[in-house]
Amino acid sequence: MPYFITRKVFLFPSFDLEEKEREKISKFLMLLEKSGVGDVVSKYVKNNTEKGGRPNSNYYNLFATVLYGFAFKKSTLRDIEDACKHDLRYIYLMEQTQLDYSTICRFISKVISPNEEEE
Q: How much is the pLDDT for 64?
């Protein structure tokens, strides 16, 4: 009997977080909402796909994920990329959108760095 070959196929995997973790993330997101940082990020949101191409990543989710990563000791962009693939908290923050480190890098250089002095 094969033990390692047979796998169950999940068409809709469950990414349900524990209630305690969801509360922590909700508090974190509420803090971001009240800080007004969404107004700064909204200047860069352009999901105009009339001329073709893919829509941009959700910049609000991306900002929250990057900030969450740096706050909880994900010190490199590749660490954040890995967390977005394997850590349920990051998957929850990104709403199951897969990121790569170059997308995170472009977001930081395009949105966060120019506004680092913003209050």
A: 92
* Cβ-based burial of 64 (10 A; exposed 0-12, middle 13-18, buried ≥19): buried
Burial classification of residue 104, based on how many CB atoms lie within 10 Å of its CB (0-12 exposed, 13-18 middle, 19 or more buried): buried
Q: Whole-model pTM?
A: 0.79
26 pLDDT above the threshold of 70: yes
Query: Taking CA 115 as the corner, what is the angle to CA 109 and CA 119, rounded to the nearest 5 degrees?
Result: 155
User: Residue 111: what are its φ and ψ, rounded to 5°?
Assistant: -110, -50
Q: Residue 76: what residue type? A: T
Half-sphere exposure for 89 (CA within 13 Å, toward CB): 20
**Number of CB atoms found within 10 A of residue 72's CB:** 12
Task: Answer whether 111's CB lies under 8 Å from 44's CB.
Answer: yes
